[in-house]
Specification:
The complex is a heterodimer of chains A (552) and B (75). With 552 residues, chain A is an alpha/beta fold. Chain A has 17 helices and 23 strands. Classes of the chains: A alpha/beta (552), B alpha+beta (75).
Chain lengths: 552, 75
């Protein structure tokens, strides 16, 4: 008897082959049969009219801490994601000595914007080494985890306070190699490093003090295990990023390792940057290098409130000058009728309609909840004001603690981004799941891939889109039994509606430890998610199944 | 002498762009000494410093300013 039989679905198996009508039988965590199946099963899922695909893989997340109290990495699972890669950008929670916790926590708070309570009340620190961290998360996992170990963490472990002060001595590099080897044996899927991230004090994180010889030595260890090197390059500058591509290529060829870098953004202001990076990746691929750029599917937004200065106002001289003042003076100016009159005039015609009308209220702060998601234009109309006046009034009424969002302000041109995403060497990822949580939602990129680039633009066929975020990702990361539906492989399966799968609207929730706020997006059109042969999510509900595993 | 050669790198354009962390950033167009024009993106911290160092009250004020002001912003 099968454990689960998924009947009557359109099987899109991850290979890119055209979908076909079939049933999928599962037993003991594995797919055992695909075809017309009549055998008995303990549980049957009717997938008529739905797609049955391999579970999606998210290769760039920061769920390291959240996994300690939420083994489902909510809401990733409900978007069809069955495997995640935490530990990106040089940051992991192991190895980590007790004495170094405050420093590393500060870095995590800087990157993830996680409330301090997440590190003090949500879990017990039971580990220092990587095996200990794995043991801490593994019993509760509802999703699969392929964790990277952070270069910063290894450097901190070996060098202590000197980690963010200087280059490493040869003996220290040897010690880092040994520690990396230990982490890989304990289940790390690779090493992450960063050239851009900063700690809580704005100082470069330890990985940025490494000389190339240090990274070369660590890459040699990755070569012993054929494991991944993930890098955050100086992505704000195309020339520097291209130089990093060349470095990654050298390491990939020399040590025979896969490498990946992220993020890669498109912008009309720098229209040639992505094409130049892809061209260099193509050149290096022709030499045999495995260098995979990661691009996110979703657009980027600009968010701000009047509580803190933002360059968003740098187009408008009087706004910029007024809002750059210290808080008390800023408040006084915004309450001064003459100043407000001048601000409104500075905002442009029709009360600042073009500049501010399309801004939306974000929610999750002091703004009335019923305004969340509404545009300033509609709020202003309701109030009998212009958008600029409404922005000021609404902010003042709530102590300036009202966040606004300029949605899709960058990386938003589907016609340009689609072909980039589809490029054979482009890796769809960089979701940053679990990071930037009080700034924007980092979930639902998979749904957006289908809604925007399959249904709306037609850039991808259904099968191509599935392949990109399943088999192709598994192959890049060396996840040999994931990413495809075939007998003998792990039963990570998502059942979804190809006509409706999408990401929900961004909304604030207060589900972080200490009732901390984060922005999330709900999954849409995902009927069921199976992890290692057990139903982890179905009918809009998470189950209690803890079938997730560390994918070592 | 090449007509494109100029004594120093200058900012010839500036626009607000969306940063990967949700903050507004500046995308600057620089014209280098050899005449080549290329973009560079700076985050909010550096952007504010640059604006201050250039005495700029808006993006338009950045045009024509020396790129040396960028170095003054690195502290």
């Amino acid at each position: 008897m099968f454990d689960i039989l998924i009947k009557n679905g359109l099987v899109v198996d991850g290979s890119g082959a055209k979908g076909f009508a079939a049933d999928v039988a599962i037993k003991d965590g594995l797919i055992v049969q695909i075809g017309q199946i009549d055998g008995a099963a303990k549980q049957t899922i009717d997938a008529k009219g739905k797609v049955v695909a391999p579970g999606f893989i998210d290769p760039h997340t920061h769920f390291d801490a959240q996994l300690l109290w939420d083994g489902a990495a909510r809401p990733s699972l409900e978007h069809g994601v069955t495997s995640i890669v935490p530990g990106n950008c040089s940051l992991s929670l192991a190895p980590l000595r007790a004495a170094d916790r405050p420093a590393v926590i500060g870095m995590f708070q800087q990157i993830e914007e996680m409330p301090p309570e997440a590190f003090t009340i949500a879990f017990e620190w039971t580990w220092e080494d990587f095996a200990g961290y794995r043991a801490a998360i593994e019993p509760k996992l509802q999703i699969n985890v392929a964790p990277l170990v952070g270069h910063t963490a290894i450097r901190q472990w070996v060098m202590g306070e000197a980690a963010n002060q200087r280059a490493a001595e040869p003996a220290e590099i040897t010690a880092m190699q040994a520690m990396l080897r230990e982490c890989l044996k304990a289940g790390a899927i690779g090493l992450s490093t960063s050239y851009i991230d900063t700690d809580a004090n704005g100082r470069p994180v330890p990985s940025r003090f490494a000389q190339f010889s240090e990274l070369d030595a660590l890459a040699a260890v990755l070569g012993e295990f054929d494991r991944m090197l993930q890098v955050v390059p100086e992505f704000y500058d195309a020339d520097l990023t291209i130089a990093r591509i060349d470095q990654l290529a050298e390491l990939s060829i020399k040590h025979n390792i896969p490498t990946t870098f992220s993020p890669v953004f498109d912008s009309p202001l720098t229209p040639h940057n992505v094409a130049r990076q892809i061209a260099r990746v193509e050149e290096q691929a022709a030499r045999g290098a495995r260098v995979h750029p990661q691009m996110q599917t979703r657009p980027v937004d600009i968010s701000f409130s009047l509580l803190r200065p933002s360059l968003f106002f740098a187009r408008l001289p009087f706004w910029y000058r007024t809002l750059r003042q210290p808080l008390e003076a800023r408040l006084a100016s915004l309450q001064d009728a003459a100043t407000v009159e001048r601000l409104i005039a500075d905002a442009g015609p029709e009360g600042g309609k073009d500049m501010f009308g399309r801004l939306q209220v974000r929610g999750g702060d002091a703004a009335p909840a019923e305004l969340t998601g509404r545009t300033l234009a509609s709020i202003a109309e309701e109030r009998g004001e212009g958008p600029a006046q409404a922005l000021i009034s609404l902010s003042l009424e709530h102590g300036l603690d009202v966040a606004f969002i300029a949605a899709s302000a960058g990386h938003a041109d589907t016609g340009r981004i689609g072909p980039f995403l589809k490029h054979p060497l482009m890796h769809i990822g960089a979701s940053d799941g679990g990071a930037h949580m009080s700034s924007f939602a980092t979930y639902g990129d998979t749904g957006y891939l289908f809604s925007e680039f399959v249904r709306k633009s037609g850039t991808f066929t259904l099968e191509e889109a599935v392949r990109k975020i399943t088999a192709e990702t598994a192959d890049i990361w060396g996840l040999k039994d994931r990413g495809r539906l075939a007998p003998g492989l792990a039963a990570d399966v998502v059942v979804f509606d190809a006509e409706t799968i999408a990401r929900g609207d961004e909304r604030p929730v207060f589900d972080m430890p200490g009732e901390g706020m984060r922005y999330v997006r709900d999954g849409i059109g995902v009927d069921a998610v199976l992890v290692n042969g057990q139903v982890a999510y179905a009918g809009g509900q998470y189950t209690d199944a803890t079938a997730g595993a560390v994918l070592a | 002498m090449n007509a494109a050669v100029q004594p120093e790198t200058v900012i010839v354009g500036a626009e607000i762009s969306a940063g990967h962390d949700g903050a507004a950033e500046l995308t600057l167009m620089l014209r280098y000494e050899n005449g080549v024009t290329a973009p560079v993106i700076v985050d909010a911290r550096v952007g504010f410093s640059l604006m201050r160092n250039c005495g700029a009250t808006c993006l338009a004020d950045l045009k024509g300013q020396s790129w040396r002001h960028f170095l003054e912003g690195l502290d």
